[in-house]
Design a protein that fits this description.
six-stranded mixed beta sheet, alpha/beta, 569 residues
Length: 569
């Protein structure tokens, strides 16, 4: 999807943790740096680096040693920075409001380099802001994702003798309420997102995969926390405590080491399900637009984060080196492997798409919403989709609508319109179902989906329909939920006598109300679309975005990415 899957420069991803070669800064900048390096320094470069708190002491120690050496003409100010707050601040600077992350809370995006706990933060910002192009210099550390459980629980389930694989654990999490699984909100925390990625990968792609993924998410969401410390407080605080709180949660190995280091009454076991395919990878990212001399100095500093001394300092924090090995003094949990090799690399665009779909599902499952779904039933929707087994575009859309409805819990309200031309006299749309609560109205909602049937000879009254749908949602606007219009279409507006693009943009611009925002999401399929006109509509609406699947069979994936996105919001 153009503009949404831009490939970042090669980076270590939370699901790939690929060890990458250090990027080469422009030759002129590097030469400029060396002109004042060593004992011949005539000036000093000052670097500001924001670092995930758990590895900040190790980075600070390396910075102090480097700044006092003959090899540097730079000072490095290391600031421990919560990745969530930094992501909000950096994203905000690039026009991205990451859903669920919230305010920046004193985080300063004016830094030269950023070392978050996971590359997923870089991918989430970059997937919605094409202008965000950091120079990533590989991973400086690693902490594998584990499942943390009280040692008594691990023993009772026989896990101390051998941890089950991710898929078996996914099935147990989805069905065994006595296990009391929980997680940190994946919209706000890299370990929570890593857990979803691990379980989703284990679920596979067969017919039962979607059901298993949803089951896992519903189970985890029952005991979710907005921050990691809150989740840790929900773990058993005394020997024999049970029946409340959290009994198992995806956390990093470093989290377990830190927790046990506090000598709790009930220690945690770290379960290492195979394959160990997900890690926190602590990427070193030089921010976009950094002065070339500072970028060159940052590149030189990055090299100091690959020494034996640095590995020893990481070990004090319970964090591994980027190759998965440990330094002396590493307090390995029982059963921990000696090393955790970085998983194989994957394309950033593929990972970004997977993240978007998972966060879309999570959003639908955990957050209340009010949505008017509007479906194109022009004659072109009869076209068959070869990649969907010959089903028509309308049939593919029906399937996506049913799958989407299954994700939404009873806190959601949903309406259904279809549009073409002359659907009710000259009006291009009809209401199949008003916006109703999913609680008690699912049979009617499923029946309305059956009405997504192409109209013989029908054209596409898109502009008039988009305005009317926006007005309807705005009229019934509700506080505390996401109010949105989601339009599915496969063609350009074709409605003689209807609104022009200039008219619909003008009307939407005049009626939008920042105090009552309505997200306008347009999901296009095929290639007979005018992206510029669609984006003009969503921009005029004030919030939302355009998401296009050139292969109509992919609109289900696009829908989930659209739900997760907060582009322009």
């Amino acid at each position: 999807m153009p503009g949404r899957h831009r490939q970042l420069q090669r980076t270590g991803l939370v699901v790939t943790a690929s060890a990458l070669a250090i990027a080469v800064i422009a030759g002129g900048a590097w030469a400029g740096y060396h002109e004042f390096s060593g004992k011949k320094c005539t000036e000093t470069v000052s670097l500001k680096v924001a670092v995930a708190p758990e590895v900040a002491p190790a980075v600070q120690s390396a910075a102090t040693t480097w700044a006092n050496s003959d090899d540097a003409c730079a000072t490095v100010a290391v600031t421990p920075s919560d990745p969530t707050g930094m992501a909000a601040a950096v994203g905000g600077r690039h026009g991205v409001n990451l859903g669920g992350v919230g305010a920046a809370q004193n985080a300063d995006p004016d830094v030269d380099a950023w070392i978050p706990d996971s590359s997923t933060w870089l991918l989430r910002i970059g997937s919605e802001a094409p202008g965000f192009q950091p120079t990533t210099l590989g991973s400086i550390a690693e902490s594998p994702l584990v499942l943390a459980a009280p040692e008594s629980t691990a023993t009772a389930f026989g896990w101390t003798a051998g941890t089950p694989g991710w898929k078996d654990l996914a099935k147990k999490v989805a069905t065994d309420k006595a296990l009391r699984p929980g997680t940190v909100d994946p919209l706000r925390d890299a370990t929570g997102l890593a857990g979803l990625l691990a379980f989703a990968a284990a679920a596979g792609t067969d017919a039962s995969a979607a059901t298993l993924k949803v089951g896992v998410m519903r189970a985890l969401s029952a005991n979710s926390s907005s921050i990691r410390n809150d989740l840790l407080q929900k773990l058993p605080q005394s020997a024999g405590e049970s029946g409340a709180g959290v009994g198992l949660a995806p956390l990093s190995e470093a989290d377990v080491i830190a927790y046990n280091g506090g000598n709790p009454a009930t220690a945690l076991a770290a379960l290492y399900p195979k394959p160990l395919s997900v890690v926190l990878d602590y990427p070193f990212a030089i921010m976009p637009g950094v002065d070339p001399q500072k970028a060159a100095a940052a590149t030189a500093f990055r090299k100091t984060l690959a020494t034996k001394t640095f590995l020893q300092d990481l070990a004090k924090a319970g964090v591994r080196g980027p190759d998965g090995t440990t330094g002396a003094g590493f307090a390995a949990p029982k059963g921990a492997p000696a090393s955790v090799p970085p998983p194989p690399a994957q394309k950033p665009a593929v990972v970004a798409g997977a993240i978007g779909q998972l966060l879309g599902s999570w959003t639908a499952i955990t957050q209340p919403g009010r949505m008017l779904a509007v479906f194109d039933v022009s004659a072109s929707m009869k076209a068959k989709v070869p990649t969907a087994g010959g089903a028509t575009r309308a049939q593919v859309t029906q399937g996506v609508a049913r799958q989407g409805l299954a994700l939404l819990d009873d806190r959601w309200s949903v309406g259904n319109w279809t549009f073409s031309t002359n659907m009710a006299g000259k009006r291009p749309w009809v209401e199949n179902l008003p916006i109703l609560s999913c609680a008690g109205h699912r049979p009617e909602m499923l029946a309305a989906i059956d009405k997504i049937v192409p109209k013989e000879g029908g054209d596409t009254g898109l502009y008039d329909t988009a305005l009317a749908a926006y007005e309807r949602v705005q009229k019934g606007w509700q506080a505390g939920v996401s109010n949105s219009v989601v339009i599915y279409t496969d063609g350009k507006n074709d409605n003689p006598g209807g609104l022009t693009i200039e008219q619909v943009v003008d009307k939407l611009t005049k009626i939008r109300d920042p105090k009552r925002p309505v997200r306008m999401i347009i999901i296009g399929m095929g290639t007979a679309l005018d992206r510029a006109e669609l984006e003009a509509i969503t921009k005029a609406a004030g919030s939302g975005g355009v998401f296009i699947a050139t292969d109509p069979a992919k609109i289900g994936e696009i829908f989930l990415e659209a739900i997760a996105s907060r582009k322009g919001a």
